[in-house]
Amino acid sequence: MKIAIIGAGSIGLLFGGYLGKKNTITMMVRNKEQSYHLATEGITVVKEDVNFTTAVNTHVLGDTLGDMDLVIVAVKQYHLSGIKPILNSLKRNIPLLFLQNGMGHIEMLQELNSETILVGSVEHGALKINENTVKHNGIGQTNFALFRGEYSNAESLVSEEIPSFPFSYHLHWEEVLVKKLMINAIINPLTAVLKVQNGQLITNSYFYTLLKEYFYELHSVFSFMDKQLVFNEIMKVCRNTSENKSSMLNDILHNRQTEIDAILGYIIGRAKSEKIQVPITRTLFQMVKGMEGGSGE
C-alpha cells in the first residue's frame, strides 16, 4: 500500500519504520531539517536485539498530496485543530486512521470530509531519539476500528503480519478508545505526579493502593467496560513497560505541553454530564496542569 503518515514524533517514526518494511511510506512533516534527514537517511528503529533502517519518502505538510491508500494521523491530540484544513483538503475517498491518546478529538472527527475514518490505540512503547531515530521500548499491538464509512484498505494491515508490530481489527470503536483511555488515565498522570517509571506503580505497595482506588473511580464513569479485563490490561502495560517513563512524565521533565486535557479533561467532562463524582481524577488533573505551567482554569 501507499501510506502517508502525518507527524514524525515517536509514534509516527515507529509506524513509518515498521510499515515501510512492506509498504511505500511518505512522512508528512513541517520541519525542513527533519524532512532532509528522513529523505536521505530513512527511519532507524532501535530495539534491544536488532536495529533496522527503513527508506521513506517525505512530503511538506500543506502541499497537495497525491493518491494514497491510507493516511495515518500520528500528531498529538492538541495539534489536530491546526491540521484540520489539511485533512479536509485530502481526497474524500482516502481512509484516515487516527492514533491519538484520549477521546477529546471525537467531536472533530465528525466535522471532517473524509468518507472513511478509523480510530486506533497504540500499545507499543516508543521514544524519539532524534529527527529520524526511534527506540522501540515495549512491544504491544495496534488496535483499531471503523468510526465512519466502510471496509477499507486499512484492514489489510492485520494480514501483513509484520514481526513485532501486529494489528488487531475490532468492531466497536468506543471500546477500543475507552480501554486505552483508561490505561492512559491511570499510568500517565500518576507517573507524572509521582515522577516514577511505569513499573513502580505496581511494585510500590502505596502507589499500587492509590492505583486501585483511582481505577475504581474511573470505572464508575465507564461502567460498561469489563472491569477485570481493563485492570489486567493496565497491569500488563505496567509490567511490559516497567522501566519506561510515560509520555506525560517525559513531557513534564522536558517542559512540554501534556495531553492531560485530552485524557483527564474528557473524563471529567463525561463524569460531570453523568453526575458522577471523580475527586481523584480532578486532583490529578489540577496537579498536572500546575506542573506543566497551566493556570488550571
Automatic annotation (TrEMBL):
Pfam families: ApbA (PF02558), ApbA_C (PF08546). One of its GO terms (biological process) is pantothenate biosynthetic process. InterPro entries: 6-PGluconate_DH-like_C_sf (IPR008927), 6PGD_dom2 (IPR013328), ApbA (IPR003710), Ketopantoate_reductase (IPR050838), KPA_reductase (IPR013752), KPR_N (IPR013332), NAD(P)-bd_dom_sf (IPR036291). It catalyses: (R)-pantoate + NADP(+) = 2-dehydropantoate + NADPH + H(+). Pathway: Cofactor biosynthesis; (R)-pantothenate biosynthesis; (R)-pantoate from 3-methyl-2-oxobutanoate: step 2/2. Gene3D superfamilies: N-(1-d-carboxylethyl)-l-norvaline Dehydrogenase, domain 2, NAD(P)-binding Rossmann-like Domain. Keywords: NADP, Oxidoreductase, Pantothenate biosynthesis. Residues 3-147 form the Ketopantoate reductase N-terminal domain. It comes from the Bacteria. One of its GO terms (molecular function) is NADP binding. GO terms for cellular component: cytoplasm. Its EC number is 1.1.1.169. Residues 175-292 form the Ketopantoate reductase C-terminal domain. Belongs to the ketopantoate reductase family. Catalyzes the NADPH-dependent reduction of ketopantoate into pantoic acid. This is 2-dehydropantoate 2-reductase. It comes from Heyndrickxia shackletonii.
